[in-house]
């Protein structure tokens, strides 16, 4: 409006200056003083005209700078609470796409590019009753990480950086980088070794969808498999269901989301994927065919007093529990002459994850989650629908092959203890069962008591006391680890592990 008024005044002054010579031409017989007065007036008008031109130019430049600044403000932004929830490993474990669509609908992602991150710092003390057998799965349970019968740490557990891009009104791009030395799959390395200190792209996909237009959405790329609930009521330690069945893979997902229904189907790349997905491709683990898939359906019912109950069921065609017991005794077994009658595994035997499978082993899951104003209750059960072949050790034939059966029961309560925010108190029990009764690899139990306090919606202080009974690492669970006696397993049912942990999770 300011520019418009100045433009009108500029045009008026210009018209007056152009009209002045014509007036003079018609006024014959005018005195010299009057002539000089007209000239003086024209000069003043020209000066004023020049000043107005400069003012208009400056105003236009200011408007252009404001427009450029507004465009810049629309380009890049951040949302600490959104990034915290997207990167927190305890929640939204396989429903991130829906959360993003809801954030877009609520204008949380109002910038073209939303940048963020999350960091988790951890101090813990672990005690074990058996040498170097620590069953807490928030650390890889191998002697490359914990030695002896106690272990302590002050570490960065993980760091994430994420980027969410609004490509169009209906297209969103997402990329997530991960640094996780404590849970990295890198072999033959410690948390200070370079193989465990790399940064990788943990998730990356294109998301199509707009909940203002349609409940249907789709995504393509590297993403979480829609199988089970797999969240936890604990502030830090993932449930055994998550460790057993949470999947990450390349593929394409189609979803349908309303206030009550959430339906998803995913075509998964075959071969051995990043987590919990393995469908053989011509007898190999080469991911060269879309021959795996998963389905999930859940319904949320609204209850009284703003409470809700979510019930769901899932199916996955090819899980990671499909390997046979690898046995090559001619090259892998040795009988030292100085120890008569003792035969050891010289090379890896038994189950090795990510190795090829002869056939797929499918899985199913059911879950229920109650959410009240201050209370949360959760139950989840998942199992393979066929036995895991590798749980049978031919040198221990008394133990038959078994299914993988896992369940979780947990609850959380928001307690008012006089602080600015509620203090979340939680308890969760979960069990991983992989072998028949009496076998060394029968089961591993985990009990977690947690306390959690949010300083802000994106900064969480937490503490946990954890008890783990049993030690059943997935690799070589039924025996065959290098150096072990043939006919034995390094899994243990007498193993006990107590953990105290405190830490902070902060979204950026």
Defining traits:
2 domains, 508 residues, alpha+beta, single chain, Porin
**Could you describe the largest sheet, including whether it forms a barrel?**
16 strands, antiparallel, barrel
Structural class estimated from helices and strands: alpha+beta
CATH superfamily of the largest domain: Porin
- Domains counted in the coordinates: how many? 2
CATH class of the largest domain: Mainly Beta
Helix/strand order: HHEHHEEEEEHEEEEEEHEEEEEEEEE
Span of the ends, CA to CA: 40 Å
Architecture overview:
With 508 residues, this protein is of the alpha+beta class. The protein folds into two domains: 2-74; 78-507, Porin (Beta Barrel), CATH 2.40.160.10. 19% of the residues lie in helices and 38% in strands. The protein has helices at 2-26, 32-75, 80-87, 96-105, 240-245, 329-332, and strands at residues 76-77, 113-128, 150-166, 171-179, 200-209, 216-224, 248-257, 261-268, 271-272, 278-279, 292-302, 308-316, 333-334, 344-345, 363-371, 375-384, 405-415, 423-433, 443-456, 459-471, 492-507. The protein has a 16-stranded antiparallel β-barrel with strand order 2-3-4-5-6-7-8-11-12-15-16-17-18-19-20-21. Strands 9-10 form a two-stranded antiparallel ribbon. It has a two-stranded antiparallel sheet with strand order 13-14. α1 packs antiparallel against α2. The protein is elongated and about 140 Å long.
